[in-house]
Amino acid sequence: MVHRNAPLTETGRLRLARCVVDDGWPVRRAAERFQVSHTTASRWAGRYRTLGVAGMSDRSSRPRHQPRKTPAEVEGEVVRLRREHRIGPLRLAVRCRIAASTAHRILTRHGMPPLAALDRATGEPVRRYERARPGELVHIDVKKLGRIPDGGGHRVLGRAAGSPHKDRRGGAGWAYLHTALDDHTRLAYTEDLPDETAPTCAAFLARATAWFASLGITVERVLTDNAWAYTKNTWRDTCRDLGISPRWTRPWRPQTNGKVERFHRTLLDEWAYQRPYTSDHERMEAFTNWLHWYNYHRPHTGIGGHTPAGRGTNLSGQHT
């Protein structure tokens, strides 16, 4: 591949060299004609004399001699430790007594991806997928979140005064945030509910399905983990009545439901823990605006910078 700053393509080099070698042009005249330096014209003419047309291609910029190259046995040790212990360049550098930048280059040279791109359990690259149309698959999960007592919790009052374990009365306790997230668009529907029992989860599914239907999205499948509520007949019967096919993740594999797990992390960072709240009511009021912003205005990096609503068709409220 010709370097982007090269003054000559391979065809131009060949023409220059033939002018000098075959037609007898002076090197300086050829350099002026092709608008390159005398040294460049002489180099390509010399390669043409020696190698012919094959000499017009770029050569590797790698030096012929590398006296300070990392020994092969050290490279092998870096690769072995990475495969067996799944540790990053900094820890590899300490163990192998090399620079962290050297360990990183070794990993790159051997095609070993960053740890963030690997499955924690198996060490294999994470296989990412995305459904082709809205409603084909909806991820469902529950996020348990401590409620804020009136007057504020520890983020407002400090750890000693606002400890949630001292008094669970006065509005304190747990909030169960049930979320249904569309795989294709990343549109999210979330409710704050008092528990995560089977009837509560089934009723949430019915309301979530109606919400997606109001946007023109028909829910075909739902994916949940193997929590108690999702394995009961209440859940199965509700799915059947709604014409939805239930799916479950493999045991101990939350990564399969990773899109809704990632949404909950975003929810915590950008809403729940974004600022101190003085009451649970104040926090939930802020949640309504945040969820609208997430669905209709927030660029989503997982879908190329589009908004979730931007991936749907004729969604109401997209420009409000």
Please provide a brief summary of the model.
The chain has eleven helices and five strands, in the order ααααααβαββαβαβαα. The protein has helices at residues 10-21, 27-33, 38-51, 72-85, 89-96, 100-109, 154-157, 198-214, 233-242, 258-272, 280-296, and strands at residues 138-146, 174-182, 188-193, 221-224, 245-248.
Describe this structure in words.
It is a single chain. The chain has 320 residues and is α/β, with parallel strands linked by helices. The protein folds into three domains: 10-56, no CATH class; 72-117; 138-311, 2-Layer Sandwich (Nucleotidyltransferase, domain 5). The chain contains eleven helices and five strands. A five-stranded mixed sheet has the order 3-2-1-4-5, with helices on both faces. Strand 4 (221-224), helix 9 (233-242) and strand 5 form a beta-alpha-beta unit. The protein is elongated and about 90 Å long. The two termini are 49 Å apart.
Helix content: 40-55%
Task: Quickly count the domains.
Answer: 3
Distance between the termini: 49 Å
Structural class: alpha/beta
- CATH architectural designation of the largest domain: 2-Layer Sandwich
Question: What percentage of the residues does DSSP assign to strands (E)?
Answer: 5-15%
Strand line-up across the major sheet: 3-2-1-4-5
CATH superfamily of the largest domain: Ribonuclease H-like superfamily/Ribonuclease H
The oligomeric state is single chain
Task: State the shape.
Answer: elongated
Q: Helix and strand string, N-terminal first? A: HHHHHHEHEEHEHEHH
Radius of gyration: 31 Å
The low-pLDDT segments are 164-171
The major β-sheet equals: 5 strands, mixed
